[in-house]
Amino acid sequence: MLNDLTASSLTQFHDDMLANPQWPAVQSLDERPGAWFWIEANHRYNTLLWNEEDKARRTDVGASEIAACKRLIDQYNQKRNDAVEAIDEAILSALEDCEPAPDARLNSETAGAMIDRLSILSLKIYHMREQTQRVDAGPDHIAKCSGKLQRLLIQRQDLGNCFDRLLAEAREGRTYFKVYRQFKMYNDPSLNPYLYGAQRQGAATGGIAQ
Fold it and tell me: Pfam family example for this protein (predicted)?
């Protein structure tokens, strides 16, 4: 599975998905094996997040619509993080025969987290390139966005090189990484004081009324 998991294949995959006008509305998750199932899921939720965050910044709609956007953002972000953890689990499963050496270096950033960052960079590149192609924008805007686009492409290349090195060294037992759980708290009512506090207050008020 890891033979086809390279920075080049990832960036091509991310870019191809964004170029597909039917995606992310239409999924093809069932067609992808192993980590690639979760790589597409991660990229899909990053794309849905991007679009929903743009909607949430509108000033021409009511507060209820913005609140609905915020709830979707929380849901997509949770699923995005779940996909990152699943990517790490799939890659580590493929690496289970690669025993880290006693002096192997622990990489603080996981392969899944790097794939997530590559996905986000592909989104930035896609939308920044759109800005460079606007016919309604002035030359200063085009020039500024063109410069940013070149920087983003370099950043993605650098991150891709780091990703390839991480997997190569992990195969050799010189580097390893772990699955790090994000434990996002905002989607769990039992961990949100504004929610469990309101429930507790409601229960207390109900008791007094009775």
Answer: DUF4254
**Could you tell me if residue 75 is left (phi over 0), alpha (psi between -120 and 50 degrees) or otherwise beta?**
alpha
Contacts 24+ apart (CB under 8 A), 70-73: 72/48, 73/49
CA pair distance 173, 171, nearest whole angstrom: 6
β 105-106/175-176 pair status: parallel
Start-to-end CA span in the chain (Å): 62
159: containing domain: 2-185
Q: What are the pLDDT digits (tens) for 163-207?
A: 999 999 999 999 999 998 887 777 777 877 877 776 666 555 554
Q: Let me know if residue 84 belongs to a domain.
A: yes
Per the structure, the count of domains in the chain is: 1
pLDDT at 143 over 50: yes
pLDDT, one tens digit per residue, over 69-94 is 989 999 999 999 999 999 999 999 99
H/E element holding 161? helix 139-172
Q: Does residue 157 fall inside a structural domain?
A: yes
In a domain, residue 203? The reply is no
